[in-house]
Amino acid sequence: MLKTLFSTNPPKLSPVEMRLLKQAERVLQLEDDELTSSPCISVCRMTEKTGLCEGCFRTLDEITGWGHRTPEAKRDVWRQIAQRLQARTQA
């Protein structure tokens, strides 16, 4: 079983952020041929300070062409999202 992406102490994330982090955990356990899930939650606003979408924590480059990315490239983006959310708990 894959180790969870966050410690046993619950992180200080909003419910939406926590759901996205849990989704990242699930997606990162999938086989490449099952990796189709997009991180988009239809909250499409870019934050000027971070350059990330407020809903899915992706950059514009990561959002662009999502459907044409390889499974490994999608997995890398999911990893980045998880790391960004984890960093928020330590700030």
Could you characterize what this model shows?
- With 91 residues, the protein is mostly helical.
- The chain has one domain.
- 42% of the residues lie in helices and 0% in strands.
- The protein contains three helices and no strands.
- Helix 1 packs antiparallel against helix 3 (71-90).
- The radius of gyration is 13 Å and the shape is globular.
Radius of gyration: 13 Å
> Which regions have little confidence, pLDDT < 50, spanning 5+ residues?
none
How far is the N terminus from the C terminus?
Answer: 28 Å
Q: Please, how many domains?
A: 1
Mean pLDDT metric: 85
Let me know the largest β-sheet.
none
Number of helices, counting only DSSP H or I runs of 4 residues or more: 3
Which band does the percent of strand residues land in? under 5%
How helix-rich are the residues, as a percent range? 40-55%
DSSP, total strands: 0
Structural class: mainly alpha
Element-by-element helix/strand order: HHH
Structural shape: globular
Helix-strand layout with pairing:
Blueprint: H1 15-28, H2 60-63, H3 71-90
Helix pairs in contact: 1-3
Brief sketch in words of this structure:
The protein is mainly alpha-helical. Helix content is 42%, strand content 0%.
